[in-house]
Amino acid sequence: MALPDRDLQAAIAVTRFGLGGRPGEIAEARRDPQGFLKAQIRPSHDRSARVLPADRVLALKAFREAQSEFTAANRARAPGADDLRQTLNARRRALRDGFEADILQRAVWGATTEAAFAERWSLFWANHFTVGPGSALQTATIGPFETTAIRPYAFGAFADLLVAAETHPAMLLYLDQNTSVGPSSPLAQRLAARPAGRDLGLNENLAREILELHTVGVNAGYTQADVTEFARALTGLTFRGFDVPDQAGEPHFRTVAHEPGPRTVMGVRYEVEGEAQSAAILRDLAARPETARFISRKIARHFVADDPPAALVAQLEAAWLKSDGALDEVAAALIAAPEAWAPEAKKFKTPYEFLISSWRATGHAPEAHNELAILNAMGQRPFYAPSPEGWPEEEAAWATPDGIIKRLVWTEGFAPKAVGDRDPSVLAAQALGARLSPTTATAIARSESRDEGLALLLMSPEFQRR
User: At a CB cut-off of 8 Å and minimum separation 6, what does 442 contact?
Assistant: First the structure.
């Protein structure tokens, strides 16, 4: 398959591999479209960022202290309970402010970054390893999850990314791993021996999602017995609490909660026990050919088409296996594949992609969290994916009549503030390059106002697709 001409390659590099064209970006990419993307593949060697930053740890400690004081006063019906309630609400609000700051920071980076392919690549992995809010602790860990467990590993070895994601407190809390205790573990036996003792159960959520969604995929041939055995191996995985602030949230292994004995998962027997057992299984899963096949198809589906070309999937899979899951090599194979440069834009933008690309097209960025509130109505509330499977990729999930109307309404409010005194025809050429169709260009040029011209650009078929 031959590559399209240089002008169209530049437009595809920015709008399909990236997050949408900022003024001047397509012109920059035109000099060397593939080189423009390859330059953004920079494996990070700095993984020193703390799992939970100091300000988040302090906010959590303050919330928990206020929660404890209010609970005690409320039970005792002590005077001052109302004041303590207000303090508790203020502490909860502080945590929420941190969560909203994470959301805004992510959107601002997407709207302004000069390395949009690298950002899209990181966002793909963040969706692959979906986590979500719940308790105050969960809410406080989601932003740091992307910062410390995804971005530093996105162009590194998949095995390292897998371990970092699965052992982060955001994932352990989201999939209830922190409550999983081996039925024959010392902890379970100790509690069961007490007069009012109770059995602590094995939780299989993390094991199941690692197999089904994060590594080999649901069609890899594993059984329920494999899920259970893997869940037993994972017992003991948790994170440090707040008694030592400098270590809060860091991975920790509780031997007392671990299910003793060897395990067999997908035909492989693991004689090692304790923390080494789950680590060995994770790294073996990362190296399996089923994982390469499953995730290669997922990458191709994200970047190119809901039903991606088999040849593209095969090239990504080959690069994965040859490099032992080196994600920088897989990204380079994606860029090098002619199938990834097909002229037809087959991916319909998600609401988040639509907003980010709209800001990029106009050279703007959100300034406050409430500017992202429209995503709730559009069905893609940040960090609230509907399931551990993450946000859907398929056009059918987003190209609905209601979804299109909500985009139109948002565009009509956004355009007057964003266009200023600029010519929307120029913005259209900068945002889409050679992907701008004559029909859309003519409609924009004939628009009755700048506002209308920008709205026509953002709602055009070629802008809605990538």
Answer: none
Query: Cβ(201)–Cβ(183) under 8 Å?
Result: yes
Q: Where are the alpha helices (DSSP H) in 210-304?
A: 224-234, 275-287, 289-303
CA angle 271, 276, 282 (to 5 degrees): 95
DSSP 363: T
Burial of 218 (0-12, 13-18, 19+ CB in 10 A): exposed
pLDDT digits 0-9 by tens, 39-59? 999 999 889 888 999 889 999
Kindly report each contact of residues 375-382 with a partner whose C-beta sits within 8 Å and lies 24 or more positions away, as own/partner.
375/351, 377/406, 378/351, 378/403, 378/406, 378/407, 378/410, 379/351, 379/403, 380/350, 380/351, 380/352, 382/103, 382/106, 382/107, 382/352
Identify which of 294, 281, 306, 357 has the alpha carbon closest to the alpha carbon of residue 330.
294
How many other CB atoms are found less than 10 A from the CB of residue 193?
8
Q: Is the pLDDT of residue 325 over 70?
A: yes
Using a cut of 0.90, tell me whether the model's pTM lies above it: yes
Distance in angstroms (rounded) separating the CA atoms of residues 318 and 316: 5
Of 191, 230, 178, 181, residue with least CA distance to 208: 230
Q: For the beta carbon of residue 45, count every other beta carbon within 10 angstroms.
A: 8
Q: What is the DSSP string of 49-96?
A: S-SS-HHHHHHHHHHHHHHHHHHHHHHHT-TTHHHHHHHHHHHHHHHH
The alpha carbon of 244 is separated from its chain's Cα centroid by a whole number of angstroms, namely: 29
CA pair distance 20, 362, nearest whole angstrom: 10
Q: Tokens at residue 158, please?
A: 């998949």
Largest CA distance in the chain: 82
Helices (H), strands (E): how many in the chain? 24, 4
Contact 457, 424 (CB under 8 A): yes
Q: What's the mean pLDDT in 117-134?
A: 96
Cβ pair 237, 177 in contact under 8 A: yes
128-145: per-residue pLDDT in tens? 999 998 888 888 999 999
Among 71-75, 76-80, 120-124, 142-146, whose mean pLDDT is lowest?
A: 76-80
* DSSP notation for 321-333: HHTTSBHHHHHHH
Amino acid letter for position 366: P
Q: What string of DSSP letters covers 335-346?
A: HH-GGGG-SS--
